Amino acid sequence: MTPATITTLTPRASTTAEIVWFEDPGAGDRARVGGKAAALARVARDFTVPPGFTVVGEAPAEQILAAYEQLAERLGKADPAVAVRSSAADEDGDDVSFAGQHETILGVRGTDELLAAIAEARASGNSDRALAYRRANGLRLPSAPLPILVQALVQADAAAVVFSANPINGRRDEVLINSSWGLGESIVGGTVTPDSITVRDDATVETQIAEKRRMTVQVPGGSREVDVPAPLRRLPSILEHQARAAATLARSLEQFFGHPVDLEVAWTGDQLHLLQTRPITTLAQFKEAA
């Protein structure tokens, strides 16, 4: 079998280097800032989204560090911890998600760590893994530098991946919540078996409490996966009212975007934060089977 080839997009006449905040004009343009950043920018005014900015093009270090200082002023703390993520134009799209293909660096603090994390996240767009994913899905290779999202890191007591439609059985009237302790990377990376909560008509219809052995926490210099303390392993990571709030958020975003959505959220106490939102790409199998 002849391997698929990757076609390079025709480069624009010039690539503008800039910092784009969620509230800036054009921040919701995925062709400009990428899918992940554009989706958050579109909803940041109406939902609780940690503040952040996107590095577009080959922005000089001075621009990035000035933006980081501005973020520190907004948060009221020096050298705030941030999450650094890729935001490709075709990432978090209707057909492909790129989940796990690009690097995410959590707990980045200080100017040196930030510049290094941006370079690492950007380089992951050309990794063998990411290129193989593009090849397998018939996607083109971008010619412009990968946009990078820099966002305040939530000091999460618990986190969850939330589906506004149930991707297991295809039910559009069910919200599925997978939650665990700490930051959400252990859930996304599949290294923890999360609690599973199904919500239908604003009522919890099924709860499965897992033995949660691993969790991701912030540590000096970044983040680390550690053992969950034994007393917490069999306790619910979120309470029923928190699950209902996550389900309400998921339904609101589904209505806003006009299609089922997959969210990443985190809690500090009872405060629910929206970290990512993208289309669910696994419901087509149920349409095909119908």
Q: Output the helix-strand order.
A: EHHEHEEHHEEEHEEEEHEEH
Instruction: Report the principal-axis shape.
Output: globular
Beta-strand residue percentage: 25-35%
How are strands sequenced across the largest beta sheet? 9-8-7-6-12-13
User: Number of helical runs?
Assistant: 8
Q: Give the structural class.
A: alpha+beta
Amount of helix: 25-40%
The oligomeric state of the chains shown is single chain
Low-pLDDT parts are 1-14
- Overall strand count: 13
Radius of gyration: 19 Å
The average pLDDT value, as a whole number, equals 86
Largest sheet: 6 strands, antiparallel
N- and C-termini, Cα separation: 32 Å
Give the structure's gist in a few sentences:
With 290 residues, the chain is of the alpha+beta class. It contains 8 helices and 13 strands. The protein is globular.
